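look at this:
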Amino acid sequence: MSELERLRAENAELNELFSRQHERGMRAIKLWREEHPGNDLVLPDLGALLDWLIDRGDVAGAWLGNEEWDLIEQMTAALRGVLEKLKVGEDRMITLINRIDHLGAERIRAQGGLTK
């Protein structure tokens, strides 16, 4: 492998890593904004965001890979629909969805499927 090829491969790897970190950061910001109404244009400080995730007990959610996260989002959307049909109060619905999100992440981690 030539030096140019090696540098291109390293560049591609670093770009992929940056993209994954950006996607995960944006998912964490989305969660933060959902729980902080009126802050749609606020970009929380990274340290404060990490503290919030830790306090919330949802650090695993920020580390899920795209496939796992997509599955949890699909399940959450389906659950929202069911709960809305059952006319469960919004606060209770959010609590249930957050709990399912946490349990899903724990199950994925226990099965060795949690990507970091």
Notes: The first helix runs from residue 3 to 34. Helices lie at 3-34, 46-56, 59-63, 66-85, 90-110. The chain has a mean pLDDT of 76. The radius of gyration is 17 Å.
